[in-house]
Write a structure and sequence with these properties.
CATH superfamily: AttH-like domain
Helix content: under 10%
Oligomer: single chain
Shape: globular
CATH class: Mainly Beta
Number of helices: 1
Strand order of the largest sheet: 2-3-4-5-8-9-11-12
Radius of gyration: 18 Å
CATH architecture: Beta Barrel
């Protein structure tokens, strides 16, 4: 059994009773990156049963910069499972092993930046059948916290993460099956959520192997995250983050983070975005930009890892 830091339990890997809030959301997210093949992606399902739908997102970053993408809002009326829009999540061993499946179509984006105008991107690019079948196995501690109803948290009242090893296959129409061997991070949250509840954040996740992974977060003035070394979890005390953007855009292309850990260690993380796709979320007249970057990291000038850098900003 992997170590658990916080008040999370292995059985929390399953869905929870549907809360009374209109915007109650229970979401699971899994990213994966194969360093040797320079590819990766993520799948997310968020159940919003009180609003009658789920949010389903799948992205596959292909070598060379192209990407496959789909987003759906299939109808649901319960929170009994994650199984919507062609995506499915199976708990094989609570706290240890999860299977993710996606079977359906995705738009093929030679230039993923086309997603700045989603309607045009879906109309003007080809669609391909995709089957993703991956098993995610924990290599680090589960860490997180389960909050109480009424605590005022409208973004992630109950939330935990875990670094994973990943193996499986991706089949893309017209191509040979891709065998995936790599690492990633999973994220599970439940409770009320509006994407518009936070002004901005930078969420930087990466793995350097079974023995070492990181999450670095900047949310407004708050700095946090963790490094894991095997079963040891070391919290991030401070982050000094500098970001380079593409031209006159908010599309991040490189970053440098000087990270201070609670044990006094200081590390430098330099990231180069290898694949980027701009996403957005609209609600009640508000527009949220979410930039998703498949990122290669160099830790202290030596060790190379892969992961995702996610930049969220509210737009006028």
């Amino acid at each position: 059994m992997v170590a658990i830091v916080g008040n999370v339990k292995p059985e929390d890997d399953y869905t929870h009773p549907l809360g009374p809030e209109e915007n109650f959301n229970e979401s699971v997210y899994f990213n994966f990156f194969d360093r040797e093949q320079q590819m990766g992606g993520f799948m997310r399902i968020g159940n919003r049963a009180n609003e009658g739908y789920a949010e389903m997102t799948v992205i596959v970053y292909l070598p060379g910069g192209a990407a496959l993408f789909n987003y759906k809002r299939p109808q649901i009326d319960n929170n009994d499972e994650w199984n919507a829009g062609g995506a499915k999540v199976e708990v094989l061993e609570p706290g240890e092993k999860i299977r993710t499946i996606y079977e359906g179509s995705a738009v093929f984006l030679e230039d993923p930046r086309d997603m700045r105008e989603p309607g045009d991107a879906f109309r003007n690019n080809p669609h391909k059948k995709v089957r993703l079948d991956l098993v995610h196995t924990g290599v680090g501690p589960i860490y997180g916290h389960v909050g109480e109803p009424g605590d005022g948290n409208d973004f992630a009242r109950a939330h935990y993460e875990q670094h994973m090893s990943v193996s499986g296959s991706i089949e893309v129409e017209g191509q040979e099956s891709i065998q995936v061997t790599g690492h990633g991070l999973r994220d599970h949250s439940w409770g009320p959520r509006y994407w518009q509840s936070t002004p901005s954040y930078r969420w930087i996740t990466g793995n350097y192997g079974d023995d070492l992974g990181m999450v670095v977060s900047v949310v407004g003035e708050r700095r946090g995250g963790v490094f894991h070394r095997g079963d040891e979890l070391i919290r991030v005390k401070d982050v000094q983050l500098d970001t380079e953007y593409e031209g006159n855009t908010n599309y991040h292309q490189a970053l440098k983070a000087v990270v201070t850990l609670e044990n006094g260690e200081q590390h430098t993380v330099e990231g180069t975005v290898k694949g980027f796709i701009p996403l957005r979320n609209r609600r009640s007249g508000m527009f949220t930009h979410i930039g998703e970057g498949m990122t290669e990291y160099v830790l202290d000038g030596e060790r190379v890892g892969y992961g995702l850098s996610e930049y969220l900003d509210q737009q006028a």
